[in-house]
Amino acid sequence: xxxxxxxxxxxxxxxxxxxxxxxxxAPLFAADLAAARDPEEAEAVVAAHGRRLxxxxxxxxxxxxxxxxxxxxRLTLSARLRExxxxxxxxxxxxxxxxxxxxxxxxxxxxxxxxxxxxxLRVIVTGFDPCxxxxxxxxxxPSGAAALTLHGSVLQARGRRAAVRTAVFPARWRxxxxxxxxxxxxxxxxxxxxxxxxxxxxxxxxxxxxxFELPAYNGALRGRAPDNEGVSAPGPVPAPPGAPAAGPLxxxxxxxxxxxxxxxxxxxxxxxxxxxxxxxxxxxxGGDGVPNEVAYRxxxxxxxAERDIPAxxxxxxxxxxxxxxxxxxxxxxxxxxxxxxxxxLRAIVQAALEA
Length: 355
Fold this sequence. Notes:
Elements: H1 3-6, H2 11-20, H3 25-35, H4 39-58, H5 67-83, H6 92-106, E1 121-128, H7 142-150, E2 154-157, E3 160-169, H8 173-177, H9 180-185, E4 200-206, E5 212-213, E6 217-219, E7 221-222, E8 235-236, E9 252-254, H10 259-265, E10 272-273, H11 290-305, E11 311-316, H12 332-354
Parallel strand pairs: 1-3, 1-4, 4-11, 5-10
Antiparallel strand pairs: 2-3, 6-9, 7-8
């Protein structure tokens, strides 16, 4: 098991799974895997169960989604896939490809598909898995909750309909180095058969304070903070496989969100900081963690494609459980804060389109 998968045995994740209704997902997945007769059938099983997780997580309730349901359920499936002994030859590369397939399907990467309507604005919003789980394994990430809640929604901006599609990224360095961001977003900057260009790509993650932040820049440097697997990878951002940018990576990329307008029109219960437009050498930066790198890679794609669209990063307020009791998975304050953050983020996305 990976470090993340091993946490599924803790009491709180088990309680979250029981509450989610996803506790049966792993046994059903294992049974279908056991019935697979060759690698192709195994891939079909993995893709189908991954997509089902994403679909059910999006549909889980009429209100604001709980991102923890999807996170812990995915890890139970990935653990079952890791321990699976097939009745046919399966080398390490093919097994790794199945694990990657499960990740993409269960994170909504397969669902970044828009209707064939030229009058429609196409908006991609990405969130993150919960992180900081060694401090509190009950944690939720409001950006992940927002991704699940906003997927499939329709906004109105400048007299046009805007279709929102979302996806979730892991808080792991290895996935970024392997090119997960580029695999998910490149088709919407460099359209191929069956895909269309996006009109806005907004990455979102949880910040460190009590308000929203709109970083002006994201740098090409990783800090020392460990990821969800406990891995620290300080140093320059590695170029992804097949990166469209030629030559060395730039030291930083700039947000093209209309930050001043977003700060003004996206105002709500929480303050929105960072509304000053980027200058020649000043402005708030996006840190040096995994979210910063996702935002950096998104802007790198935008620049390589020479697309003049809103593409930037939004940091949400910190979401706290509000109880020291390890058996309490949520409080009224936690639910209220999560709902308010998600709705204000919806207003921020709409403000970016209107401006």
